[in-house]
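Protein: Anti-sigma F factor
Species: Paenibacillus chartarius
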Amino acid sequence: MSDKNMMKLSFSARSENESFARVAVAAFISQLDPTMNELTDIKTVVSEAVTNSIIHGYDNDPNGIVTITTEIEGDMIRITIEDQGSGISDLEQARQPLYTSKPELERSGMGFTIMENFMDEVDITSAPGAGTQIRMSKRMESKKALYN
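Structure follows.
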């Protein structure tokens, strides 16, 4: 029997769905009995990525769809958050701390930086007009001994 488990969730790009996404992923990974710090880190990166899709990818257009796929394999969590929105023209610039393409919304420009600090790996694929896919992974340190 494989110890791999996954869930996939799609929802409208509405700001009120950001908390739903965060709670859904947290509920799914709760089967690993994460520490509070691990759970908080996961919820934070999901919030950041989903908010980026809604605000930057779809420009708050609720007709857009955000999709989250979460996989658990052993002590590893993989989360993919994707949209079919406007995409990112300069990914290197977008990954710089404090950079925001929407300063009028008082955005902090720390979304990608937070994701990179809280996760072990963050891989972003994006192109103008083609949407964005953020793939993140994290080894759950609290479960490391069980799988090594």
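Remarks: Residues 49 and 78 are 14 Å apart (CA to CA).
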